[in-house]
Amino acid sequence: MAETRLASLRNAFLTGLLLVAPFVVTIWALRLVIGFVGGSITPLFQPYLPAALSHLPALVWDVATTVIVLCLIAALGYLSRIFLGQWVGMVAERLIQGIPGIGGFYNSVKQFIETFGTKDRAQFSKVVLVQFPRAGAYTIGFVTNTNRGEPHRHLQGDHWAVFVPTCPSPVNGFFMFLPAAELIELEMSVGDGMKVVISCGAVLPNWSDPAAAKAALKTWAAGA
């Protein structure tokens, strides 16, 4: 019985020690850092403190100094990370631009994104299929305006302003007023339309036919 109580007391002590040990180590580490940083810097400015503040304990100034130093180090690391990231990005961009073939394509895509990026993407209201450069041949176009202006006085019917980009340099293209009845509106977003143009059709967004899905649902319901 005595051994059992002794073992129980020992286990309880070890459990308590395991709970207290992290706090003890943390406090020890904080005191070490504060003593090293604050203790080294505080004596440099403490003689110049106003008389109203000179009576505060040295520990207060050591803690304050340590906090200030750690904040300055964190700010320095944050700024260096920003500038270092920019430098790495510039070097990587130069390497890509130096690759024959890929460099030209990269510059075209970059120029297209900068010209029609997220900020200016609102200029495109919808994606349409346009018969261009001949009847029966279709390409992607972006509607830029559906309002009527002076040019519409000389046009019969409703015409929309459409921008048709070229590949592989989509920053260039053709601007046309086209009959709205001849345009095929697509459900894809402007961003997906840009991906199709930039990839020259190699990238197509996922799409499901609503009519086919509805018919399949009816067939399933009838079979059930």
What's the helical proportion of residues? Answer: 40-55%
Summed up, the helix count is: 5
The low-confidence parts are none
- Total strands: the figure is 5
Strand composition percent: 5-15%
Largest sheet: 5 strands, antiparallel
Output the structural class. Answer: alpha+beta
User: Roughly how many Å apart are the termini?
Assistant: 72 Å
Radius of gyration, Cα only, in angstroms?
A: 35 Å
Could you spell the SSE succession in H and E letters?
HHHEEEEEHH
**Which overall shape is indicated by the principal axes computed on the Cα atoms?**
elongated
| Mean pLDDT score | 77
Largest sheet, spatial ordering of strands: 4-3-2-1-5
Structure, explained:
The longest helix is centred in the first third of the chain and has 44 residues, at 2-45. It is built from five helices and five strands; from the N terminus they run αααβββββαα. The chain is 54% helix and 13% strand. 11% of the residues are buried. The chain has 224 residues and is of the alpha+beta class. It has a five-stranded antiparallel beta sheet with strand order 4-3-2-1-5, covered by helices on one side. Helix 1 (2-45) crosses helix 2. The protein has helices at 2-45, 58-97, 102-115, 190-198, 210-223, and strands at residues 126-131, 138-145, 159-165, 173-179, 184-185. The protein is elongated.
